[in-house]
Amino acid sequence: MTLATPWQIIVVALAGWMNREQGRVLEYLTAENEVLKEKLVACCDGRRIRFTDSQRRRLAAKAMALGRQALGQLSTLVTPDTLLRWHRQLIAEKYDGSSKRGVGRPKVDAETESLVVQLARENPGWGYSRIVGALSNLGIVVARCTVANILKRHGIDPAPARKTTWSEFIEQHWDTVTATDFFTVELWRPIGLVRYHVLFVIELATRRVHIAGIVAQPNGTWMAQIARNLTDAFEGFLTGKRYLIHDRDTLFTKRFRSMLADEGVECVRLPPKSPNLNAFAERFVLSIKSECLDHLILFSDGQLRRAVVEFCRHYHRERNHQGLGNRLIEGGLLAANDDGAIQCRRRLGGLLRYYHREAA
After folding, report:
1. Superfamily of the domain at 174-333
2. What is the mean pLDDT of residues 349-355?
3. Which member of 9, 23, 322, 327 has the greatest number of CB atoms within 10 A?
4. What percent of the chain has pLDDT over 70?
5. Is the pLDDT of residue 336 over 60?
């Protein structure tokens, strides 16, 4: 028989002491758990103690590690059978794929569904079959009933009952809508300050501006001639347009409106005191005055005409417009080359400037 070494005796003694200490700790925790259990039962008035899913997971994981026999020796808040049942449920949930299963064919992906809705809204006259055909052109195969179900889910009516919204209507007619307005400029003449009226027309879609006329005293006869010029078959600015927005200035006479109507241009009179409804025209007036005319002292109508013409050339070819994505109305935004010398084009003595690179 081999005698134990002093180190083995020390290790055994230490292990026994630690085992006794752990036993005392477990006895205390067990007693404390029983007290807490009694408190909880008293607070719940005999009702079942409710646990959250997170608490169930923690208890079930620990219970599985201990086993049924060890659990039976403890005073637990729930029975060993309940703890083990929770564990089995957690395992079943891990491999449960019922939430991913459905009845019938699988649903179309979100991208295809979004495309179906887009086609229906952008094309109010398209029926289910037409949408199916448009999708097939894109390599997407869906059934007619699938399109019908998608539109029904999104509250979109079938083609005959699908209405055109105001935004769609305006977008469809955007290229045919124009607006007109007057602005005034004071000129120094031998008799003193004389007010001149400038009439312009602007295309809402492109922001192109046409100066229709400049005169000191506009009248009905002058406006009639302006109507003839604007609807000229070869050079008329309103050729091909359908609507002209203007305010209730008395210069827009009944004769002026009827002459435009005879050429297929309908005048749209704005309500009284509503400048915001002619915002594009008002913005042009602000631009030409703040960037050009307010910085000049003019002594003749010739100077005024030159200033207005030069600004319009700058406005169309050299001025970036935020409403058009910071692009120019005429010409591209990007330079033809990026290594040419930088040049400055000056108009009206440098009042209007445009920087560009020298052509290669």
Report:
1. Ribonuclease H-like superfamily/Ribonuclease H (3.30.420.10)
2. 90
3. 327
4. 69
5. no
